[in-house]
Every structure is written in C-alpha cells, then in structure tokens.
Design goal:
By secondary structure, the protein is an alpha/beta fold. The chain folds into three domains: 66 residues, Arc Repressor Mutant, subunit A, CATH 1.10.10; 112 residues, Periplasmic binding protein-like II (D-Maltodextrin-Binding Protein, domain 2, 3-Layer(aba) Sandwich), CATH 3.40.190.10; 105 residues, Periplasmic binding protein-like II (D-Maltodextrin-Binding Protein, domain 2). It contains eleven helices and eleven strands. The strands form three sheets. Strands 3, 4, 5, 6, 9, 10 and 11 form a seven-stranded mixed β-sheet that branches. A two-stranded antiparallel sheet has the order 1-2. Strands 7-8 form a two-stranded parallel sheet. Strand 7, helix 8 and strand 8 form a beta-alpha-beta unit. Helix 1 crosses helix 2, helix 1 packs across helix 3 and helix 2 packs across helix 3. The longest helix is centred in the N-terminal third of the chain and has 27 residues.
Length: 304
Amino acid sequence: MTFNLQQLHAFTTIVESGSLGRAAELLHVTQPALSRSIKRLEEQLGAPLFERHSKGMQLTAIGETLLPHATLLLREADNAREEIDAMRGLAKGTIRVGAVASIATLVLPLAVSGVLARWPNLRVQIIEGVWDRLADSLLKQEIDLALSMAVPDTDEITAIADCCWEDLSYVVAALDHPLRNKANLCLADTLGLPWCLPPRGTGPFEHLERVFAEQGLGMPEIAVETRSITVLKSLVTRAGFLSWMAAPMYDTESAAGVFDTLPIAGLVGRRTLTAFRRRRGILPSPAVRLLEQLRLLTADRDNG
C-alpha cells in the first residue's frame, strides 16, 4: 500500500490538534478540503480513522494503529529532505537528542560543542529527563538519540553497543549535615534519615536500590520523590535531605561549597551509560554526527 504524505500529515495534525477546525487552521486549508483528504485516506484503508464527537475527533482502533506508522513515515520523509538539502548546501539540519541529567551536565555539552565546531550550520534540540521520558520521546519521534543508564533492549529500542562509558554516583549531603561529624560512617547510618530521589522505576532509584542490596540493606524511606533536579538539589542544600547523584551532576555545587559527597568508606556506585536509538528507521545524519563525537569522547574517558 502506498501512502500519500499529504494525507498522513493531515491525519497527524488532526490528532495533535484534537479537532477538524483547528487542524484546518494549522494547515491553512478549508474544513471541507481537509475532510475530503481524510475521507480518501479512510477509503484507501477501508476503515474509519476517527469517531466524530461534539467535543472533537477521537481515534478508532484503526487510527490508533496507523498513528505511529504515519509519524515515522513523515519523520523519515523530513530526514530525507533534510539530508538531501544539506548535501546541496541548502539546509542546516537538526540534532534531536535526550539525556539524563548527569549526561546533560557534562558529556552531552562537550559532544555538542565538538559537533558544532565541525558543522556550524547544524542546530540542536535537547530534552532532559529520566529513562521513561526519554524512551517515550524516542518512540514518539521527538528525539533520535537517547543517552541514559544502560537498560535491557526492547522490541522497539536498542542500545548502541560501541557508545558506552561509566561514571560514579555517591550519597550527597549539605556540608553542615550531622552525618559529617560521625566517625567511620557507613551506608547503614543513612537509614532513618530523610532522602529525596527520582521516583521508583527510574535509573537513579534502581541504582541506589542495588547499592543498598549489595551491602545487605533494605532501601531507606524515601520522603520526597521528584523528577526535578533543581528540587532535589534544593532539598539537599536547604532542607538537610540526603540524595544519590552521579558526580557530574553536582560538580558546580561541590566547587561552590554548597553540598558534596558524603564520605562513606568503600561505597562505589559504578554504572554504565550508553546511547539508544529506535530499532526501525534510519538514523538521521545530524544524529550520526553527534554519535560519532560521543564515541570519541567516551573512548577518551575509558582510556583515561
């Protein structure tokens, strides 16, 4: 079956806008013309894509099935146009990447700087978040690369095996935290004290859970869960909470004397980080250039 990209664009715009009228305004066409376009697509598929309600347009099961494929086809068409235009010197190209906070703090800025030094016409769009958000953004075609803690591959997302590296995480606390006065501090001493972390199911939570388990301990009571790095840092700095962070996330706070690693003897929170992509589809050339720079940086870190 051959799809008409204009019809697919009309279809996805209706989904995004929620109504035929708003979609027609966005596409600069009349509502009857837009309706005819969707009707032709439905006739080609042999099934309705929307149920019409007074409050808007709701996808049918067929529409739900078509949506991710339509989004992928439109993104691949955009990538093809962008790459061809770039070869002709007509376009800038866009790198769309997502990263967890520790990578967004150090490795990603270095990689972006390296790429833009070689290809100054490229532009970069970055989102920051924990793994579940990054995976969702990959599947929705919002980003082409996700940089995160290593997790198992899925049917739709796979790790890029030759782009991985390690970093270390630590328990962090304000410089005036009472535990700093305790001799022979151990991880068990943090139990019963207020902790703040990203929520259960995220990489930092599961990483800390493994660290406690390796020392034969259950998890501490997590008083505050938040995805906001700003809130986590404020809780540590201003409210006496403990948290668990990768070293690059708080190097600025450490240098400024705001908060720092809690000196727990023998505690090494090592983790593997890597790049991920969608299994299906072609990786756009701007993303390939960022990936090449990441490989160089991560190889240097491993050798160092």
